[in-house]
Amino acid sequence: DMTFLKLSICCLEERYAFLTEWYDPTAALLRRYQLFYYPKDSSVEMFDVKNQRIFLRRTKYEDLHQEDLFVGNRVNVFSRQLNLIEYGDQYTANKLGSKKERTLAVIKPDVITKIGDVLELIYSSNLIVTKAKMVTLTWKQAADFYVEHQSKPFFNNLVQFVSSGPVVAMELMGDEAMSTWRRLLGPADSAVARKEAPQSIRAQFGTDGIKNVGHGSDSFAAAARELEFFFPSTIGHGPSNTAILTDCTCCIIKTHAISEGLTGKILNSISAAGFEISALQMFNVDRANAEEFYEVYKGVVAEYPSMVTELCSGPCMVLEIHGTDVPQSFRELCGPVDPEISRHLRPTTLRALYGKDKVKNAVHCTDMPEDGVLEVQYFFKILDW
Ligand code: ADP
Ligand code: MG
């Protein structure tokens, strides 16, 4: 009897259940699966909801970690990106769902070049960045965003400041993300922050009451509204990216580096080397787009299939690096493709410092100078339509 079998299995062994969605690019539709995760042996099992049949037999899969299993997150199971949309049972909801939150963080124009430092602090607080986009707000957009402060005496100055240059909006996720991020920011006035919370971000990087590094949502309702403002899930597109699309090269901080928490360090190294990051955005690239982006390497580089798999195995962060003759000079900062060789020949390059092997080599950079614009366009014009 199936019911008895299911019951006995779940009583014998710990199991987490989720309802997930996967976008099938060939059929262009969303498919729903139940996902089961067995922590004892790190195995997964998938059940096709529509067709009511096993889709994936219980299989060991060590790349999935228990801390990534919560509703709202996106996980990778055998190169399929699954959105965890609901807990499959009360046990899973109680055990894994209690404290996970999403919140909006904005890095304001005063510290845009210190984004790496801020990300370091975010990762060290056990928050993860699940979305990120550099945008420049119009006066109107900034006024809409800060509508709650409309009647305050500082409203005009605030709107003027926040629309004065690029900002980076991020979705942060983790245990008590909202209060964790606000605690990390510290008191709104940077001078007060230096007295009362000297370790806080505003104490370290802020200037005064208005130039105070960042914004954080202050309630669940605000978080929902503000995330929708920058990352609309339904209609519209949100504020546009900042890509210039001339005199530029493309850098991708690869998926493995993001999940190892190296994003902040890599951005710091890029800024320290004097490069201008003129656009920044996180993308979840699907297999078809990864294949298209890496097309020129197909049949040329033995690692092509693994490169495709790496690129679509989770979120990556794409940068537009802007400047004259920048494709060549940026390649030098990245170093030879193989991190082992980089460590011998160019020990201070990004791949020497942050790469693991020829595929997980921390960053992609444009090969041919004439491809710089094309690669940047691929992400910032085609994928971010
Ligand atoms: P928080 O950003 O910590 O949520 P508030 O919501 O109170 O702080 O204010 C929103 C933003 O308005 C602040 O981050 C700051 O940039 C600006 N601001 C707040 N109070 C003042 C003030 N008295 N003078 C100038 N700017 C202010
Ligand atoms: Mg506020």
What does this structure look like?
- The chain has 385 residues and is of the alpha+beta class.
- It has three domains: 13-97, PH-domain like (Roll), CATH 2.30.29; 100-230, Alpha-Beta Plaits (2-Layer Sandwich), CATH 3.30.70.141; 248-383, Nucleoside diphosphate kinase-like domain (Alpha-Beta Plaits), CATH 3.30.70.
- 36% of the residues lie in helices and 25% in strands.
- The protein is built from 17 helices and 14 strands.
- The chain has helices at residues 2-12, 90-96, 115-124, 139-145, 155-162, 177-185, 190-196, 201-205, 220-230, 255-259, 263-272, 287-293, 304-311, 326-334, 339-345, 350-354, 372-383, and strands spanning 16-24, 29-38, 43-48, 53-60, 74-77, 80-87, 100-107, 128-135, 167-175, 214-216, 248-253, 276-283, 316-322, 363-365.
- The mean pLDDT is 93.
- The strands form three sheets. It has a six-stranded antiparallel β-sheet with strand order 4-3-2-1-6-5. Strands 8-9-7-10 form a four-stranded antiparallel β-sheet, sandwiched between helices.
- Bound molecules: adenosine-5'-diphosphate (ADP) and magnesium ion.
- The site of adenosine-5'-diphosphate has 9 residues, from loops.
